[in-house]
Amino acid sequence: MIYVDNNATTPIAPEVAQAMAEAYAAGYLNPASQHRPGQRARRRLDDARDTILNLLGGETTRFASDRLIFTSGGTEANNLALFGLGGDRPGQVIISAIEHPSIAEAAQQLQARGTAVRILPVDGQGVVQYEQLDAWLEQPTRMVSVMLANNETGAIQPIQQISTICRKRNVPLHVDAVQAVGKIPVSFEELAADAMTVSPHKFHGPRGIGGLILGHGVKLNPTMFGGSQQLTTRPGTESVELAIGFETALRLAIETLPEAGAKMQSLRNLLETTLLEKLGAERVCINGGKADRLPHTTNLAFPGLNRQALVMALDMVGVACSSGSACASGSSEPSPTLLAMGLSEAMVAGSIRVSFSRFSSEEEVREASGRILSAVNNLRR
Ligand code: PLP
């Protein structure tokens, strides 16, 4: 099986599995306990938290430190940001048209409970258009949430421009950086956001942990109750072992990024050019291909084909890819991201996502290209 569905999740790196096995063997106990074994666990957890924050451009040394709240993953961190960021500030919530379902559907819930939600549009390449944002922020606004890079097309979003507008209007900005971390350099400080979501299973870390970085002094109401952990913002016993896996995966992802980024991009380009050469531009299109993109993601439209049939045909010949966000992969719903880009229904119906990792090889990509070509030609017959 050739695995090219790394935006859904990635295989754990051997070094991460090793670090976690050692952590389990070290016998850490409850970091909230007051006894010495508890204090030992707390110290290791705090170390992991500081390292993660430092690696992501957070501030840990000054009195005015940023904070990292551990969650169960990106979905929970996004929900926490959407429901909690800004504290009790009244007002609307603004998101973009291409957010992951953990933002888009959380926003629908807010709307059902009476919050006004406004949606920033995207252009034909899937890049958020923020020209109206400044005017929208004249209305009371609790928070804005825009992703750093899209999970379906890889399109990188103009977060610095958006954060400048939000800072000027003093409105908190949340950034979902789940797909960007480990694929491009990401600095919380440079983005000038107030909150940022990270999920280590997207960069060869463990599933079951994620994080929400919060700027110093940024208000966040909890969405769960019943414990004093993480300053009551997200109660529940923390896992030192998962935090160590998160820390190790992030360190490796950042250390390997200069080489891995270039490699993933050349593999992605190899796949795209092979398919374009063999099929021609009328039979395959690269959705969002003109945007500034993450190096490892491509979204391919095969007009006239059915994406579900293609994903299944590819599975049968040993290529694991997807027809959109993993959260929606069991469904046949057309991708809201591609629809927001203004693609025709026929293009959306025939679009699949292929995503590489630093473990992908040229041999695999050449083989996958051949299998995709024959599956496409078979389905066209
Ligand atoms: N945000 C984006 C952009 C994603 O791609 C994903 C996962 O696909 C998530 C959030 C959710 O993260 P998790 O799978 O850790 O819940």
Structural commentary:
- This protein is of the alpha/beta class and 381 residues long.
- 40% of the residues lie in helices and 13% in strands.
- The chain is built from twelve helices and twelve strands.
- It has helices spanning 14-25, 36-55, 74-84, 101-112, 133-136, 159-169, 188-191, 240-279, 307-316, 336-340, 345-349, 362-380; strands spanning 2-3, 67-71, 92-96, 117-120, 141-145, 173-176, 195-198, 210-214, 285-286, 297-301, 319-320, 351-355.
- The strands form three sheets. A seven-stranded mixed beta sheet has the order 2-8-7-6-5-3-4, with helices on both faces. A three-stranded antiparallel beta sheet has the order 9-10-12.
- Helix 1 packs antiparallel against helix 8 (240-279), helix 2 packs parallel to helix 8 (240-279) and helix 8 (240-279) packs across helix 12.
- It starts with a strand and ends with a helix.
- The mean pLDDT is 96.
- The chain binds pyridoxal-5'-phosphate.
- Pyridoxal-5'-phosphate binds at residues 73-75, 78, 100, 102, 147, 151, 176, 178-179, 199, 201, 210, 325-326.
Can I get a quick summary?
Helices cover 40% and strands 13% of the residues.
List keywords for this structure.
single chain, 381 residues, alpha/beta, seven-stranded mixed beta sheet, binds pyridoxal-5'-phosphate
